[in-house]
Amino acid sequence: MKAGFVGLGRMGLRMVNRLVKEHGIVAYDINEQAVGEAEMSGAEPAITLNNLADKLPSPRVIWLMVPAGDPVESIINELVPKLNAGDTIIDGGNSYYKDSVRRAQRLSAVGVHYLDVGTSGGIEGAENGASLTVGGSAEAYNAAEPLLLSIARKGACLHVGPSGSGHYVKITH
To answer: What domains does the chain contain, in order, with CATH numbers?
Structure first.
């Protein structure tokens, strides 16, 4: 599977290092040095979000690993004009579950899937396998499942329900 990955901080870069062993990854971050490090691990670099979207086959799967709030909104706003019906955005950060519900509704209106993924395990999980609680449609989950299973520890990836539930479950466990 070829997928996009946005956000190459402490968790994101380690997740990319894990993913490139099984998948083609196109990596983007505002920090060019981080993109260079991802490229050294085997990821294809992207110089902008538009460039990232252009390098991915349809249907696209793009994982966001950025701080909650405005950074997620900003990235989604920039990506939406480049996305097609059937594409999927995965928010693996710590977004508030009600924001995830709102984003999923907004993206659904243009045919784009949204998965909210509670990602637990910290840096050790990013390197060795995280625990994932995934909220969103079954269709979107199935499309992204190969990527999700590559990030998760064996037996630690669970589709927990509709949009918002992945982030909600993470904050309650």
So the answer is: 2-172 (3.40.50.720)
